[in-house]
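Now for our target.
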Amino acid sequence: MTETIATPPAREPIAVVGLDCRFPGARDSQEYWSLLMDGRDGTGRVPEQRWDADRYHAAVPSSPGSTSEKRVPGRTNTVRGGFIQDPDAFDPGFFGIAPREAQAMDPQQRLLLQSSWRALEDAAVAPQDLAGTDTGVFVGVMANEWAYLQLADYDRITARYGSGNGYFMGANRVSYHLDLKGPSLAVDTACSSSLVAVHLAMSALRSGESDYALAAGTNLIMTPVINIFYAQAGLSAPDGRCKPFSALADGIGRAEGVAVLVLRRLSDALADRQPVYAVLKETGTNQDGRSNGITAPNRWAQQRLIESVWQRAGVTADDIRFVEAHGTGTLLGDFIEAQALGELTSGRSGGSVALGSVKSNFGHAEGAAGIAGLIKAVLALHHRTVPPSRFAHEENPKLDLPGRRLTLLKSPLRLPSGTVHAAVSSFGMGGSNAHAVLASAPRAVHRGRPGAPGVFTVSARTPERLRANLLAQADALARRPENQLAQLCWTSNRVKSRLPHRSAVAAGDLPTLVAELRTAAERAEEAPRVDPGRRSVGSVAFAFTGQGAQHPRMTASWYRSCPAYARHLDDIDKELTPHTGRSVRDLVLDGDPELHRARFAQPALFAVGYAMAVTLAEGGIRPSYVIGHSIGEFAAACVAGALDVADAARLVARRGALMESLPEDGGMLAVGLDAAEAEALLVGRQRLGLAAVNGPHATVIAGDLDELAQVERELSERKVTARRLTVSHAFHSPLMRPVVEEFRAECRDVPARRPLLPVFSTVYGRELTGEETMDADYWARQITAPVRFAQAAGALLAGGVTHVVEIGPRSVLTPLLARLTTDGGHPTSLHAAHPGEHAPGHRPQQLLGELWCAGLAPQWDVLYDEADRVPRRLPPYVFDDSFRAWHSGAAPGLPELSAPHVPSGADTTAVPSGADRGAPCPPAPAEDLPDSLAELTRRLVCRVGGHDPGHVHDHSRLHEDLGFDSIRVMELKARIENALPRLGELPVEDLLASLRTVGDLVRYLRSLHLTDAPVPAAPEGTHR
């Protein structure tokens, strides 16, 4: 009786949104695709690093003239296989792993960590954004030869070898170091392990257990054990190459590799406009059960699995364009797989189904074999081309592939437009089978805005890595379409902006961006660095520019290049127009000379200052303090919550109109005197006044033109610098008095509100305190009172502000602030706009890039239109590969684990993952601590972690920077007790509380009533 398989309802498709891989002959996915398309051979001789291939090789002819070989016990029949380059290279500090721990770790764990990070970045996701989420990690792995090499010598086993070995740690390492809280498990079903891992990942996504999932596979060949097994079982190809479905097929060639897929529900990926390589429609697994041997494949189990997966995916043989087969190149395996597939494809209408196996390119990657084939299928659907099969010209006629409507590709097959389906099989020795059906990704076109500028951000852990990553990005961007500039920049802001050494490049076209990135790479040593240990990003002050800063087309570049600024300027213009009678925005953008009239200049300065401020606040740059110079105080008051925007718009318009109504018989003179010296000049001159105090020797006098001319002549005779300002009226002088009362009346209905932020008043020259408000009397007094900027700014700077952003159309206050800072501290000062009419068209992008480099955390969306906010793939992080650790042999009794290779000057200090990372802080002495105790403590810390002493300082954080976990803490405790026996046994809870930094630990030890006498070095041979 034939059993009917019911077709269940379609389930949520799963998108492949990111991937990374390393396979023989290919260091990344691009090289992998090139290897496949070129049909190249990735195999080679067994590297000397693995084992002495000749020692274990036996090629003894069974008879004179025979090409067959005897099976010699304990020997292989080949010296070749598929090996990846530099499997021992790792960047331990990047993941917060101490060098000694990294040395003990299975290299598969190291490869998985870096590949997972790169795959997430390939998905246009910042790995730190997934910290704390339910992201799952599913790793297919069937080899643990590192443990065999490490744990065979019982005398050398330490605690770190336990955490460095074991299948489970492959997945758990990734979850731990990326702080992922979803399912985390290793899967061993032999050769089908990684495709089964994909199946489990899909189940977690479909059930809602995870929103993201990493599905991975890994395999490293460290000993000849499996080679010997294959040779003794008659499964090993003498030339170390798999020849699937070929008449030349004579066995398996072994291979290794690592790969990670980032999976997400398709609906979620499309909603976020995330790039999608391909879609997983359905997967399935089953078991052979009892058949003709536990190591032999089962045709009926394979056939049933494939048929059931196709039915659940809603496809038939007519829909499948190509199959990535398990295809090991063994006669029995190929025959059974061809039979199983042929039962489903032989009745296909139309042409044949393309058949292939990536094993023909570099061999059987065992635990990573399934994902190797899956990535091949994913890339084929993505590029809409199926690569050719090696050995296709010698197709095995006994398989009757044409009769089964199957064909090996001798050349690439171009896929048609529309939805295309593919299938992937992976069968494990022991009978665990897996199969998947894929479809091409839905077509999604997200065109960028031509000419839209952006700021491209690159960050890295060290200056050397910053240089490498800047160059990698420049090389990739040189090949991208011009209209993707803003989208690429937006993606970099999301994905590439979390590490401490930083570089930001603003540009309006891709060639300029590429050139500037390469220039930045040359200056990587000078790039800003953000301290990863700093818990606060600092305090920001907005300083609003006053009258005189206006110029034709001021902030036009902001309006063109920053959608948020354009929106806010439009909004404030609507508030002003009823009071000004004309659009201030249009006057500004058109460069109308009317802009210089007081009735328009003052509203215009208010408009651009307020629009800039709220744009920056929307972009995450929110002030903790505000200060305004003259008319700039109105925008400052609005930002501080002391003045309603509608009221401010009415007041500045009325203020400008009243001042313009006064006779134009006054002027202003900047003099190189302090306030007291300037005021002495005013004695007896009733129509002159002190207008502004901008610095110790930067004062402005204003008033009657004739009296001002007299002062100018007097100062010239005294050789004192004096410069006339280009103004229409004598602002902040006695000549303004006629309009004061009328303006006071205009202000009477404005509510007197206490500011929500500290306001440093340039009327009072200090911070507003207590119940002080900016009421009608305040605004009336401001018209004639001197602008006491120097005093107010001095009070602001004395309060510990870390960043000052000048808000206005020209840099006026920034140089004044630079002269006011003392040697005790210099806040980072930045100005919002370029001076001049022909300013570059991307100043907002430059400014946010500068603020980010200075340690702030912008919300980058403010710079981009909705059409620009499209994730684009960027090259993933380029890790430091200078650290090397490997075992030098293949069997018990071989040499000890080699010390990790760390080139001179390489930074192996560990830093945290899932948060900002950075190189060690500069050396800082632990105050009033005995040098000998501090030196001993650092020496012990370095011995436990295996760190370079030159990179461990008092501010180095033990957990985040140096990779100390509970095992290392207990080892450190024992070493301290041994080196300082008079301490006795250290209380664990007290020790843990004192372990934030090396300096904290030294201070704790110092507090235990130790004398200040030098601490003797422990005798030679003492365990430390």
Q: What stands out?
A: The first helix runs from residue 29 to 38. The chain has a mean pLDDT of 87.
